[in-house]
Amino acid sequence: MNPYGQVESTLKEILDVIKPLQEDSVTRFRIIDELREIVQSVECLRGATVEPFGSFVSNLFTRWGDLDISVEVSNGLCVPSAGKKQKQTILAELRRALIQKGGCTKIRFVPRARVPLLRTVSKWQNISCDISIDNLQGQIKSKFLFWLIEIDGRFRDMVLLVKEWAKANGVNPKSGSFNSYTLTLLVIFHFQTCVPPIFPPLKDIYPTNVVDDLTGTKVDAERRIAQVCLSNIARFRSCRTINRSSLSELFISFIAKFSDINSRAAELGICPFTGQWENIANNTRWLPRTCAIFIEDPFEQPENPARAVSKERLIKIAEAFETTRRMLISANLTRNTLLSMLVGPQKSRFLINDSAGYTSNSGSFQLNPHAQPYRAMQPPLQI
């Protein structure tokens, strides 16, 4: 089998395992429903709504992916205006209610994060949950990513595969590296800079800063943004040149594109809004420079979700890309070496053993002979 053929078959094999089943969505809805009951038991949250966002809503989650939840104290009617201190107070009350109710473990209050939140682990499949207050920005970003899947379904596959590769190679927030959202922006940028491009510059989908237009009532703001985005997406789809690259070609070129990311980052920033590398010195929004790498959030400019990555960590990230690139073009490429590089030793062990499926139990993966292969489910956002 040629290298591309080996990579292609292995990537599809990985996707068969990591893509969520019907039961994974059901479990997440159960967690959301239970949180709704707890929220209503808190005096200061009577009437508040509970809304998922993040990878679950954008349909970019894996079977063991985290769950992001926003508690809407504005009842979802108006664009929220709660300040950081108010959010901290509300989360402290909610934390007490979660402890009293039970059903989740490892409850951790993170009040000083840019977006204050509660981190918990649910009793259902040990799914990690991040709970924030009035996170409308997160919700609209999630919907935007969901709409991008409508342009090309390979986007979803690539994001899932890149997330798994990143975890297997230490490119994750726990090591001070890229978070899932940053990795998703890298995939978007890769799709914009392919030949021919799969995605347009995001300014061609929404011409201004999305979060700046979250004004008035929540429903009206979301409707205005959705109308502009979906109209421009339809226009792009009608006149684009189709990129017919295989999944393996897209993955290999993605790894190669960022294998020198540390040297490029010295002068250039990644800008999905314009769909190109931008000279940092010429971009006043990014000055003065205080970060090792600049990956601009196209929906909340000029925020940089990679701002916490240090120069030393960026070198390690580039090494992970370069090591994988060399492995992918190796003449001695095998399925087992691919699996160990792309999903890590723990999950690759089950794939190598041709497992029918596995479940998460206290953070470890176990064979699950009853795993259902049914995946013909509606994406969570449509539900």
Automatic annotation (TrEMBL):
Q: Name one Pfam family in it.
A: MTPAP-like_central
Start and end of every Poly(A) RNA polymerase mitochondrial-like central palm domain? 9-144
User: Organism's domain of life?
Assistant: Eukaryota
Put simply, this protein is called Poly(A) RNA polymerase mitochondrial-like central palm domain-containing protein
